[in-house]
């Protein structure tokens, strides 16, 4: 469990680092996606139980996994996908307008 | 019929049927959008009237209150819902004459925005709050890029990066809350929030503050706003500045007072952070606004500074300060929308975007310029208008709670606002040539500006039509424990 939590923390920090340090628009978008992935992992990790099964209300299934975080994870994935779509659209448009994906270059061109 | 659910489903249904209506029933398109926004307004007013008597709760699909998806409305939510509906109606009237290209996309996005804002205000559990916040954000990114020029794309990209990272912080805080309490239902959270250990709770609260703060432009996180608001069409900047950032502020306030209570906040000195971040926001906003040459950028920075006033009001955590802060939310929504809409008329019809090029505009468009001037005077905080009262309440509450420096900052802020708004007003009424022709402006553009400014005057002259209701709203807000228990145990 601890190993998973460390991985989650590393991914989250890596995402923030990428967003803050990279100049390329596509790489910034990747950083955001890495951050999102770490949060979804965190949600799944919260509800994980060793040997747990789907929450079926029956006597045979006693050790069940909490289904709510998984539903939340699905919703978070959908939101992340739509945000990524908008971001990539903007990246394409920025490339068409400025001819570059470098964010500092884009600022300089605008003056 | 339950108003709460229709306030969310209704605009959503209209938003997507508008695409079909645009194809087959183009002749009645305008009538449909106007009538549906009037209907939303009537619904919200009737909800407000019911809510004043007793807070309402509604469970989707008739599940148990603790299991299903709930909608909750108290007087504060009711007031904000009415503000959203009113601004939506006026901005749709304005847009009929203002927006010429991509009409069907524009109105679809606008109605989705209304639905998501209503959802954000009425929702009864944390995760739906997050979903609605993200819908509002995504629609705002799209609307900022609506002009389709390089400035709009750049502003929208900046907004989307900061907004999305902020959204992730909110999500992280929600996950931690669920981990600690095992519930996302606000009513259960109120009861169980005392189980969370002190360290974790302060972590969660600060994550919420960072997350929502980057969305409502608290100062170190404000950098997207001065680009995003001027790049959007004027009607959209009015909505963004008037109600969208206030919606985020409301969501943050709700989560704050559900996770903890006033005495706990004061004991942990969090109120100092709120008040002084408010002071910094206020001063930075005013000083940067003072340097601006472009009118819409000036208004955007002024919006940031108004967030500071609201934060000071909320930070005092007294009944007076809170009701002042909430009163300021509503007043600023009315005033700033009027200013942005008037600035939109100036920049579209007369091609005046810089403050310098506003010279003589008061003689070309007398009525709109008068509206702009009144709204600017209101925003400075001069007596007969509504902002004066809310600023007065906030300053008094700050002094009573022993915060002298923030009260002084409010005064200093008003003087700074006076200096830069006077610059604009002076430009508007400077005469260069002898004869100016009066430019004919569509009545659809004029009506929202006039309505909003006259509302400012009416509320300013008779604040008692709103203040008692605000007191009621704040009472529920400060004692959220009792309020949610009343709702869910009957």
Automatic annotation (TrEMBL), chain A:
Protein name, UniProt field: Multicomponent Na+:H+ antiporter subunit C
Q: Which GO terms describe its cellular component?
A: plasma membrane
| Major subcellular location class | membrane
Give the transmembrane ranges: 6-21, 28-48, 68-92
Compartment list: Cell membrane
UniProt xrefs under Pfam families: Oxidored_q2
Q: How does it sit in the membrane?
A: Multi-pass membrane protein
What keywords would UniProt list here?
Cell membrane, Membrane, Transmembrane, Transmembrane helix
Automatic annotation (TrEMBL), chain B:
Highest taxon in the source lineage:
Bacteria
Q: Which UniProt keywords apply?
A: Cell membrane, Membrane, Transmembrane, Transmembrane helix
Which GO cellular component does the record give, naming just one? plasma membrane
Instruction: Tell me the Gene Ontology biological-process terms attached to this UniProt entry.
Output: ATP synthesis coupled electron transport
The GO molecular function terms of this record are:
NADH dehydrogenase (ubiquinone) activity
Q: Which residue ranges does the record assign to the NADH:quinone oxidoreductase/Mrp antiporter transmembrane domain?
A: 124-413
Keyword Transmembrane helix attached: yes
List locations, semicolon-separated: Cell membrane; Membrane
Regarding the membrane, this protein is recorded as:
Multi-pass membrane protein
The UniProt transmembrane annotation reads 6-25, 32-52, 72-94, 106-122, 128-147, 159-179, 199-219, 231-253, 273-291, 298-317, 329-346, 367-389, 401-422, 443-467
Q: Name one Pfam family in it.
A: Proton_antipo_M
PANTHER family in the record: NA(+)_H(+) ANTIPORTER SUBUNIT D1 (PTHR42703:SF1), NADH DEHYDROGENASE (PTHR42703)
**Which family would the database say this protein is a member of?**
Belongs to the CPA3 antiporters (TC 2.A.63) subunit D family.
Protein name in the entry? Proton-translocating NADH-quinone oxidoreductase chain N
Q: Which species does this protein come from?
A: Halanaerobacter jeridensis
């Amino acid at each position: 469990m601890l190993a998973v939590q460390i991985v989650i923390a590393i991914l989250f920090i890596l995402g923030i680092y990428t967003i803050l340090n990279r100049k390329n628009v596509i790489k910034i978008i990747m950083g955001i996606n890495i951050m999102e992935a770490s949060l979804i992992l965190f949600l799944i990790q919260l509800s994980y139980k060793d040997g747990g099964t789907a929450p079926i209300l029956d006597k045979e299934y006693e050790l069940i996994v909490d289904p709510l975080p998984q539903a939340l994870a699905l919703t978070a994935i959908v939101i992340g996908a739509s945000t990524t779509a908008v971001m990539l659209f903007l990246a394409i448009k920025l490339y068409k307008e400025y001819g570059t994906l470098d964010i500092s270059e884009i600022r300089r061109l605008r003056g | 019929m339950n108003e709460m659910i229709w306030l969310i489903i209704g605009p959503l249904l209209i938003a997507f049927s508008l695409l079909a209506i645009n194809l087959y029933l183009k002749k009645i398109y305008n009538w449909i959008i106007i009538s549906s926004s009037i209907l939303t307004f009537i619904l919200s007013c009737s909800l407000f009237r019911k809510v004043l008597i007793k807070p309402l709760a509604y469970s989707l699909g008739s599940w148990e209150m603790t299991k299903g998806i709930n909608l909750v409305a108290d007087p504060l939510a009711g007031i904000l819902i009415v503000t959203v509906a009113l601004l939506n109606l006026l901005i749709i009237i304005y847009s009929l004459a203002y927006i010429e290209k991509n009409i069907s996309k524009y109105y679809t996005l606008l109605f989705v925005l209304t639905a998501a804002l209503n959802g954000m205000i009425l929702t009864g559990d944390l995760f739906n709050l997050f979903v609605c916040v993200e819908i509002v954000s995504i629609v705002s990114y799209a609307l900022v890029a609506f002009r389709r020029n390089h400035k709009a794309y750049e502003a929208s990209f900046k907004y989307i990066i900061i907004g999305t990272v902020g959204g992730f912080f909110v999500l992280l805080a929600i996950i931690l809350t669920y981990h600690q309490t095992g519930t996302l239902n606000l009513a259960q959270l109120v009861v169980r929030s005392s189980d969370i250990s002190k360290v974790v709770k302060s972590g969660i609260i600060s994550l919420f503050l960072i997350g929502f703060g980057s969305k409502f432009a608290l100062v170190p996180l404000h950098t997207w706003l001065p680009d995003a608001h001027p790049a959007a069409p004027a009607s959209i900047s009015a909505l963004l500045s008037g109600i969208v950032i206030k919606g985020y502020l409301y969501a943050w306030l709700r989560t704050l007072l559900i996770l903890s209570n006033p005495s706990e906040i004061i004991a942990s000195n969090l109120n100092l952070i709120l008040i002084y971040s408010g002071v910094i926001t206020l001063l930075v906003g005013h000083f940067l606004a003072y340097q601006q040459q472009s009118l819409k950028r000036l208004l955007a920075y002024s919006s940031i500074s108004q967030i500071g006033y609201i934060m000071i009001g909320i930070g005092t955590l007294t009944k007076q300060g809170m009701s002042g802060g909430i009163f300021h939310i509503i007043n600023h929504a009315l005033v700033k929308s009027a200013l942005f809409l008037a600035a939109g008329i100036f920049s579209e019809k007369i091609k005046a975007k810089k403050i310098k090029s506003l010279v003589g505009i008061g003689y070309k468009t007398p009525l709109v310029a008068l509206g702009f001037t009144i709204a600017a005077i209101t925003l400075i905080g001069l007596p007969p208008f509504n902002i004066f009262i809310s600023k007065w309440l906030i300053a008094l509450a700050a002094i009573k709670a022993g915060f002298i420096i923030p009260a002084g900052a409010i005064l200093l802020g008003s003087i700074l606002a006076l200096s830069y708004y006077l610059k604009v007003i002076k430009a508007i009424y400077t005469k260069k040539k002898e004869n100016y022709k009066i430019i004919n402006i569509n009545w659809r553009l004029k009506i929202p500006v006039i309505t909003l400014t006259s509302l400012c005057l009416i509320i300013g002259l008779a604040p008692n039509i709103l203040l008692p209701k605000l007191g009621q709203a704040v009472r529920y807000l400060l004692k959220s424990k009792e309020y949610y228990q009343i709702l869910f145990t009957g």
